[in-house]
C-alpha cells in the first residue's frame, strides 16, 4: 500500500519526538502519541480557538497548577445543529509528585501553556469528505490538564498541586449544557488514549444527564489499557495506575458498579468496567497498541538490557519470540472484550496494527488509504454503529495479515 507523502513525513518527525519521550519515559507524563498524531497533515484544516471556563474557578475545577480549564468548540449547523460530539483530550497521566510538578509546567497541566488554536481533524473535521457523519455537529474538544483521566478530586498544598479532574469534567459538561447541549437530539462522547479511558469511566454518568429520548453513545479510541504482565513478569502498568488513583483521590469517582466488588486500582482498568457499561459503547483499538508496547509491556524498567528496543521502534525487527509475546497480548485483549462484545448495542473495531489513536487522525479516520476491516473503514464503521445502520463487531485476524494498517515506525 502506498502511503501519502504527508504521512511518511509525519513518521520521521514523530519518530524523533517519540524517541525523546521514551528516553524520559520513567516520568510517565509525556505521552504525546495522541497529540502529535492528531496534527497530521493539518495545513488546510479548520483551526478552532481556545475558550476558558471562568465559572470553573468557583467550583475548584482547575488544572494541576490552579489555572482555568478550557475547550475548543465549532458550532453545528443544518441537520447537525442539535447534535453534539464531545471529545476528551488524551495525553498520559502523572502518578507522583515529581511527575505532576513537571506536568503543571506543560499544556497537560496548565491552560497557560495550551495552544490558542487547535486543528479539528478526523472525527472533529468540518468537511463531509473527511467526516461524513459528524461534520456538521457541534464538535467540542475538552482539554486535558489534570493528569488522571478526569477523575481526581484532591490537592497537595505543599506542592501547590490541584487534582481536580472530576470537577473539570463536571464544569465542562455544565458549560456545554448551557451552550445548548441540554436540548441535543443526538450526542456522542469520545476520547483517545487517556481520553479514551476517561470516556469509559464517565460514559454512564454522561448518559444520565440526558432524557431517555436523547440518543447518547460513547466511543473509546485506544483506551483499552490492559492489566497484564510485562516482559519481565511484573505489573508495570498496575503499579503506575495505582499511583494515579491514590495520589489524585480518584477512587471515589470511579464507577460504583466496579468499586463495589474490586479495589480502586482495578477499577481504573477498562477490562473491569466495560462489561457493566449500560450505555451503548464502541471500542476502537489496535491489537498491538504501540503505547502499551512502549510503556506497559516493555518499558525500560522491565527491559534494562534493551532487548526490546528495536522491536518497539519497528515491528519488522521483532524476533519470533517477541511476536509470540505480542500475539499473547492480543489474545488477552480479545478475552477482555468477550462479554462486552456479546451485547447487541456495543460496537467493535479491533485491527491488527501497530498504532495508537485512529479517530483523531485524518489518514486513519477517513481517507483514500484508511485502514479497513470487512471492506469498511473506521469512520463508516463508527457511523453505521451510531446510527444503527448495521451492527459492527469487526475483529482483525492476527498480525501480519492486515495490509491496510498505518503502522507507526520510529527512528532509531
From TrEMBL:
Molecular function GO labels: pectin acetylesterase activity
Pfam families, A to Z: PAE
Cross-referenced InterPro entries: PAE/NOTUM (IPR004963)
Keyword terms, alphabetized: Cell wall, Cell wall biogenesis/degradation, Hydrolase, Secreted, Signal
Domain of life per record: Eukaryota
Chief subcellular location: secreted
Signal peptide limits: 1-24
Entry keyword Chloroplast: no
One GO BP annotation of this record: cell wall organization
Localization in the cell: Secreted, Cell wall
Enzyme Commission no: 3.1.1.-
Broad EC category: hydrolase
Gene Ontology annotations for the cellular component aspect, listed alphabetically: plant-type cell wall
Role played: Hydrolyzes acetyl esters in homogalacturonan regions of pectin. In type I primary cell wall, galacturonic acid residues of pectin can be acetylated at the O-2 and O-3 positions. Decreasing the degree of acetylation of pectin gels in vitro alters their physical properties.
PANTHER family, A to Z: NOTUM-RELATED, PECTIN ACETYLESTERASE 12
Family: Belongs to the pectinacetylesterase family.
Name this protein carries in UniProt: Pectin acetylesterase
Species per Swiss-Prot/TrEMBL record: Acorus gramineus
